[in-house]
Write a structure and sequence with these properties.
eight-stranded antiparallel barrel; mainly beta
């Protein structure tokens, strides 16, 4: 199908305080604000725009059992926004954020740990599902093909091939030029 985006252009969304990435709990100063750019108009194809992190590309992560403190650094930005379905009843669009990758390293003084975050079978990048409730909120949903790879050390906290979807919740996508909500629909 085709898509309509109003008003389009540069946007931002804020509000995430943490992100769950696989079994990691990441404090999210780097995710407090996301920014991006959407196409504008109607009859648009599914690839609607791009998204990137506004502040920092790195997150401080640990796990609930007190395992090592890690730094997860996103790479491959900007990511691509692809719409896949629209619920008129909920006024909500669903889709995929594509091109996600990251490196993981132990913070100084923590036990050794290194890994990468990417797609299936060691692919360099992967995707994560998103939901944009027009005028209300934007979220990375815990569904996608992201996995941890090349895990070294890490005390069993993460393992090779382990699923690692991102779950993070933001405020609405707000158009930079007009301070109004970005509205994405499909006929």
């Amino acid at each position: 199908g085709t898509w309509t985006v109003t008003p389009g252009g540069s946007f931002s969304a804020g509000g995430a305080r943490r992100a769950d990435i696989g079994g990691l709990v990441c404090q999210a100063p780097g995710l407090r604000t996301i920014k991006g750019r959407l196409k504008s108009g109607s009859g648009l194809p599914a690839r609607l725009g791009t998204i990137w992190l506004a502040e920092k590309r790195s997150l401080g992560c640990d796990v609930q059992n007190g395992a090592p403190l890690l730094t997860l650094t996103f790479t491959g930005l900007p990511w691509r926004i692809w719409a896949s379905s629209y619920s008129a009843r909920l006024n909500t669009v669903y889709g995929r954020i594509r091109g996600i990758s990251a490196t993981i390293a132990a913070t100084p003084g923590s036990p050794a740990c290194s890994a990468v975050l990417g797609g299936p079978a060691g692919a360099a990048t992967g995707w994560n599902e998103f939901r944009s409730a027009n005028s209300r909120s934007f979220a990375f949903l815990p569904t996608g093909d992201l996995r941890f790879w090349n895990v070294s050390g890490c005390g069993g906290v993460i393992s090779d091939g382990e699923r690692a979807p991102i779950f993070a919740w933001f405020g609405r996508l707000t158009a930079t030029a007009t301070s109004t909500a970005e509205i994405i629909t499909s006929p």
